[in-house]
Design a protein that fits this description.
With 309 residues, the chain is an alpha+beta fold. Among the domains are: 31 residues; 171 residues, Galactose-binding domain-like (Jelly Rolls). 23% of the residues lie in helices and 26% in strands. The protein is elongated and about 165 Å long.
Length: 309
């Protein structure tokens, strides 16, 4: 019979009893250290799974769960916004979808007319802010060389208002000279005009260049700017005469009507059969819009092209 050899060290430490049997029992606990087979250079055997750490699972769940919740919340918000916003507005009127073809045509014509009226209103506003005369050369501009002949024009209107007192003697306010009409002021301001007595008068102008005249422009303040809310001093009917040299027979370029309810600056076209080459122009006011004492001229412009010699 095979007998195991006793350890002297265990015997001296009384590991064995008197009968030679072990008196101390113990239980072995097996500790397994799992290493990555990939780190050891080994491949995973088929049919065998690598143990997974439980802490890794929990960490993975804690990372994925907030992302899922955030995605769900974002989806819910986008859905609610889409429902609140509704569908985009269709360019086709809902009324057209419920009408028969004939009624649809009438409705479309009505909408086209409304758009045309809106465009006309916008064009009127643009003309008010940017008159046609501002896009044309002005040969009756003082800074360009044009000038007024006062001795050939009507006398300036002298108001009865006094501007100041000098040793008890009232001094009348000096009238605005006729050159103001050719200075091209913009915008037109109340009182900055040349006045002449009554409703009839004229202004004689030497143009800056020898010109073939195509248009003339007359300007006056609007009713909105007038302190009285009226423009009774504005010219109503006026005529334009032209001549090449002083002493020549005057050529009537046309008679025109200034509309007191129209744009403050109004441009008038000279008829083609009246066009010619001229150096001088006479503006003759036939009547005003009702003021009994005087009339006012704020601005007058002459447009055309330089004459070719």
């Amino acid at each position: 019979m095979f007998m195991s050899r006793k350890s002297i060290r265990l015997e001296t430490s009384r590991y064995y009893n008197n009968n030679g049997e072990s008196s101390v029992t113990y239980r072995e606990t097996v500790y397994r250290i799992f290493l990555s087979r990939k780190a050891l250079g080994c491949s995973q055997p088929e049919g065998r799974e690598t143990p997974v750490n439980g802490n890794g699972n929990r960490r993975f769940v804690f990372l994925i769960l907030p992302l899922c919740l955030g995605l769900a919340f974002l989806t819910l918000m986008l859905s609610s916004n889409f429902v609140d916003a509704g569908l985009s507005k269709s360019p086709v009127s809902p009324l057209l979808k419920t009408l028969d073809p004939a009624a649809q045509c009438e409705e479309m014509e009505r909408q086209v007319r409304e758009l045309q009226n809106e465009l006309l209103g916008l064009k009127t506003q643009m003309n008010y802010l940017h008159p046609v005369a501002d896009t044309l050369a002005n040969f009756a501009l003082e800074s360009l060389g044009a000038k007024v002949f006062p001795h050939l024009s009507s006398k300036s209107f002298q108001t009865k208002e006094t501007s100041m007192m000098f040793f008890g003697i009232p001094l009348r306010q000096q009238p605005v000279p006729p050159q103001t009409v050719l200075q091209g002021h913009s915008p037109l301001l109340p009182g900055r005009c040349w006045a002449f007595a009554g409703g009839r008068g004229h202004l004689f102008i030497a143009l800056s260049h020898r010109v073939t005249i195509s248009h003339v422009t007359l300007g006056h303040i609007s009713k909105n700017l007038s302190p009285t809310g009226t423009v009774t001093t504005a010219p109503r009917e006026f005529s334009v005469y032209a001549m090449e040299n002083l002493g020549d027979e005057e050529t009537n370029l046309g008679t025109f009507l200034y509309d007191q309810d129209g744009d403050p600056v109004q441009t008038f076209k000279i008829p083609d059969n009246k066009r010619g080459v001229f150096n001088h122009v006479k503006l003759h006011v036939e009547s005003n819009w009702g003021h009994p004492d005087h009339s006012c001229l704020y601005s007058f412009k002459v447009h055309g092209k330089l004459a070719v010699d």
